[in-house]
Amino acid sequence: IKTLLLTISDSDALSNEESPQGKAYDCVNFGDPIEPQLLPGQDNDQIILRYTLGVLYFALNGDNWKKNTNWLGVTSECEWFGVKCSPSVVTATTLDLNNNQLNGGTIPPELLGNSSNLIIGNNGKFQVLGRVGCLCIFIYIFLFLSRTTFSFSRT
Description:
- This protein has 5 helices and 7 strands.
- By secondary structure, the protein is of the alpha/beta class.
- The strands form 2 sheets. It has a 4-stranded mixed sheet.
- The longest helix has 16 residues, at 44-59.
- It is globular and about 40 Å long.
- The protein starts with a helix and ends with a strand.
């Protein structure tokens, strides 16, 4: 699984057990309760999606969200609160965490290519890491700017 995740994450971040990437890796690799168990080579898209959403969860303090129903649990990631998936492929088409008390973190670069729509307005203050060009090409951010502050950083 680590080899697969290194295609989208930095090695240092993935190896750091305290980083959102390290926590999500541990969750997907060692503690993922989904049944049946996901297998590298067979379920790569779903492993990457669960990992990417896990990175977001840890990066934006998911334990403190207003709603985090099913996140990191036994259900399909398409049943996690705010995640809407395409019925034909394993990909999140919309991630709607609007007005959900996201605060004090960084939207990770792993998310930039793995969701078509990200709705995150009416939340706290956080930043987006990644190249702004990628942000414009791969993801649409619908901003309801009241009570949400963003800062963009280049990497």
